[in-house]
Design brief:
Blueprint: H1 5-18, H2 31-38, H3 42-54, E1 58-61, E2 65-68, H4 81-86, H5 91-125, H6 130-136, H7 141-144
Antiparallel strand pairs: 1-2
Helix pairs in contact: 1-3, 2-3
Keywords: DNA-binding, Transcription, Transcription regulation
Pfam family, one: GntR
Domain HTH gntR-type: 3-71
């Protein structure tokens, strides 16, 4: 069974982006221009752009256009993209994109945990108690009572 036209179109544009043909910040043709160039409907183009956005390759700025994003290709740019991943028809592709997103956020969480730990250690070096640090971080009173005053 042949792929839907919007999937083929998205793959073509993704190839250009990943291949370096379109670099960060490049504005894609308008949906009307893409539809005319490929002999398809604007709805087909819209779905293709939605797939590109779900893969984290482009972002759309209302009234300005759709632009190639920088950073780590293949990582959705926002939480709203999770819904777009859910909408992808190909189950294997959907699973792959979900896995990539999970890995991306696990790495970010690890980085943030390291930053938080360094900040806590810095505060301790400046004489701030664990209880006060916990209070400033918004821990519940029941958790604060479990923290040592001094180590």
């Amino acid at each position: 069974m042949a792929e839907p036209a919007y999937v083929a179109l998205a793959q073509e544009y993704a190839g250009r982006i990943r291949g370096g043909g379109w670099g960060e910040g490049v504005r894609l043709p308008s949906q009307g221009e893409m539809a005319a160039a490929h002999g398809c409907s604007r709805d087909t183009v819209r779905k293709a752009v939605d797939l590109l956005r779900a893969e984290g390759l482009v972002r759309t700025v209302r009234g300005r256009g759709t632009f190639v994003v920088g950073g780590e290709a293949g990582v959705p740019a926002s939480e709203h993209e999770i819904d777009r991943i859910r909408a992808i028809g190909n189950a294997i592709r959907r699973a792959r994109l979900a896995s990539e997103l999970m890995i991306y956020y696990q790495i970010r969480i690890a980085e943030l945990s390291g930053i938080r730990q360094s900040a806590i250690e810095e505060a301790r070096d400046r004489g701030v108690s664990y209880t006060e640090i916990g209070r400033q971080l918004g821990l519940a009173e029941s958790r604060l009572r479990q923290l040592p005053e001094e180590i």
